[in-house]
Amino acid sequence: MPKRYFKKSNKTQRIAKARINLLFRLAKEHFREDSKLSDKYVKMARRIAMKHKIRMPSSLKKQFCKSCHRFLVPGANCRVRIHKHRIIYYCIGCKHFMRHPVK
Ligand SMILES: [Zn+2]
User: Fold this and answer.
1) Distance in Å, CA 78 to ligand 1 centroid
2) What does the DSSP 8-state code read for residue 2?
3) Cα-to-centroid distance, 26 and ligand 1 (Å)
4) The CATH number of the domain covering residues in 10-101
C-alpha cells in the first residue's frame, strides 16, 4: 500500500510561518536578559517548521546552531569569519561549524 501523504493547507502554513518569525523576533529581544529563553524559542520554532513541513528561510537558518539548536548572536556566542568565498559561523557552545557559500 502506498504511503499516504497529507498536504498541509496553505492557511495553516501561513500561520506557522508567522509564528516562526515571531518566535525568532522574541528570541532576539530576550537574548540579553535570558539566553536560555531564546534557545527555547528556537526549539519551538523548529518544531513548528517540522510539523508543518516548512523550510526555514536562509536568513533564519543562520541565527541558530544546526547541532545544538542554540540561538546565535555574533560576538556573544558565535564567531563569524569569511574564508574561501564562504561565510563560516562557529558556535562557541558546541564548537560546530556552519559554512554558507557567498555568490
Ligand atoms: Zn552549537
Assistant:
1) 9
2) P
3) 20
4) 1.20.5.420
Give the pLDDT score at 6: 63
What is the Å distance from ligand 1's center to 14 Cα? 29
Residue-wise pLDDT for 43-84, tens only, equals: 999 999 998 888 888 889 889 999 999 999 999 899 999 999
Cell 543562520: give the residue. Answer: 62
Residues sharing a CB contact under 8 Å with residue 93, sequence separation 6 or more, in sequence order: 65, 68, 70, 77
pLDDT at 40 over 80: yes
* CA dist 31 → 46, 63, 72 (Å): 17, 12, 9
**24, 63 in Cβ contact below 8 A?**
yes
CA 12–ligand 1 middle distance (angstroms): 30
- Predicted TM-score (pTM) of this structure: 0.81
Q: Distance between CA atoms of 44 and 47, rounded to whole angstroms? A: 5
